[in-house]
Design brief:
With 423 residues, the protein is of the alpha+beta class. It has 19 helices and 9 strands. The protein has a domain of 265 residues: Hypothetical protein af1432 (Orthogonal Bundle).
Length: 423
């Protein structure tokens, strides 16, 4: 096992100078981690917010930095083992290493088609990628333990909470970073107060003293506003649907699929990881392939037209939207069933399933089992059960139902919606 020595620094636009020890620098310098420089943090958000071109690379450094500050504070208080501080920082550094190009846009294709999530890809990378796993073991860190933290399956519940909960280090960084780059002011949180007062309750949950409840409230409210203004923005979501459809058609068109291999199915992705070739799969890879399809007139005209719409920023438009708050998921609601029925019986849309998309999301505002706790009477209570906080009056879920249409079908899709709403 190597001993850590020299320290270097990377300047970050959110946190200032971030120190990297020898192990962290070795991981950052791997081709697999450098790939994150070429994957935008917010996928298609730059089509709405031009400044949103920051990457998974800078975000990952920021998450590691926050983990170091928070876990270090908890270790000094005797709430977690000091010997595990390095393990937690490495898990934070690698938590997004499995993201697909264009982040959630293309991940959605693999989730729908194969049930594959980026956390699983990340676990494969950490345990099987020759660059990553070899560096970890060289410094005495077990890759499977790092993977367990990222997937929320570590034996220490508090480690899972630090990495994946309502107020984890991932969310703390991306709210600050995304608000900065989009220019949306709603995502600003009091990070100094949060770091200063954060602690763990007796059961290992993220907790705060009652005096810091305003910082917790501001966090939850900021996150809710960022959901509406950025993460589930109707135009951004529409372009993510478009990229998802383009990728599906590329992966299922024989003459194009060969260019896309091995990144067409889970087996191919895992093989690329084990062979050390995942670093090739980035935003540029997909963008270059779309340009090649147009330049060489590959595939059919329908696919090429979708790519032209994307490149010309003329994608899916919202022709209907419903946003609601409460505990009931909209997934099987009367509204969704009614829209599905209306779409299925409209003869004009019979051959236009690509041109019209039904979008349904149920987003937790307060996640059951992962809520922030407020210390009280020797124990703690969930923030949404704490009578001294406005969070107790917040809904636990936000539901979104939208109908999107490409320009070719927008006119009669709006007619269909108008008729549907009459009934």
């Amino acid at each position: 096992m190597k001993v850590l020595c020299t320290m270097k620094y990377v300047f970050d636009e959110v946190h200032g100078y971030i120190p990297l020890d020898e192990l962290e620098r070795r991981l950052v310098d791997t081709p697999t981690f450098q790939r994150l420089r070429r994957i935008k943090q917010l996928a298609q958000a730059w089509l709405v917010y031009p400044g949103a071109v920051h990457t998974r690379f800078s975000h990952s450094l920021g998450v590691m930095h926050l983990m170091g500050k928070i876990a270090g504070k908890l270790a000094d208080a005797g709430l977690i083992r000091k010997d595990d501080l390095r393990l937690l920082k490495i898990a934070a550094l690698l938590h997004d290493v499995g993201h697909t190009p264009y982040s959630h846009a293309i991940e959605s294709y693999f989730k729908v088609r194969y049930g594959l999530k980026h956390e699983v890809i990340g676990s494969w990378i950490i345990t099987e990628d020759p660059y990553i796993k070899d560096v970890l073991r060289e410094y005495g860190i077990e890759p499977f333990e790092v993977s367990a933290i990222i997937r929320g399956r570590h034996r220490e519940a508090s480690y899972n909470m630090l990495m994946s909960s309502d107020m984890d280090v991932d969310r703390l960084d991306y709210l600050l970073r995304d608000a900065l780059h989009t220019g949306v002011k709603y995502g600003v949180i009091d990070i100094e107060r949060i770091v200063q007062t954060i602690t763990l309750d007796p059961e290992g949950y993220i907790a705060f003293p009652q005096k810091a409840v305003q910082a917790v409230e501001a966090f939850y409210i900021a996150r809710l506003h960022m959901y509406r203004s950025v993460y589930y923005h109707k135009t951004i979501a529409g372009y993510q649907l478009l990229i998802q459809e383009i990728y599906r058609q590329m992966a299922e068109t024989k003459e194009i699929r060969d260019f896309l291999k091995p990144f067409t199915d889970p087996e191919g992705i895992r093989k690329a990881i084990s062979e050390g070739n995942l670093y090739l799969w980035d935003d540029f890879f997909i963008g270059g392939l779309m340009n090649l399809i147009l330049g060489q007139k590959l595939g059919d005209e329908a696919l090429r037209e979708l790519i032209k719409l994307y490149l010309g920023r003329r994608g899916y438009r919202t022709v209907f939207e419903w946003v609601g708050f409460g505990k009931q998921s909209p997934l099987n609601s009367k509204l969704v069933k009614g829209l599905e029925e209306a779409l299925s019986r409209d003869l004009r849309l019979k051959d236009e399933r690509i041109a019209v998309k039904l979008y349904v999301e149920s987003i937790p505002i307060i996640t059951e089992g992962a809520e922030v706790r407020i210390l009280k009477g020797g124990g703690s209570v969930r923030v949404n059960d704490y009578g001294g906080s406005i969070i107790s009056s917040m809904p636990e879920e936000m539901g979104i139902v939208r109908l999107y249409s490409l320009p070719v079908t927008e006119g009669y899709t709006r007619e269909l919606i108008a008729e549907f709403l009459k009934h």
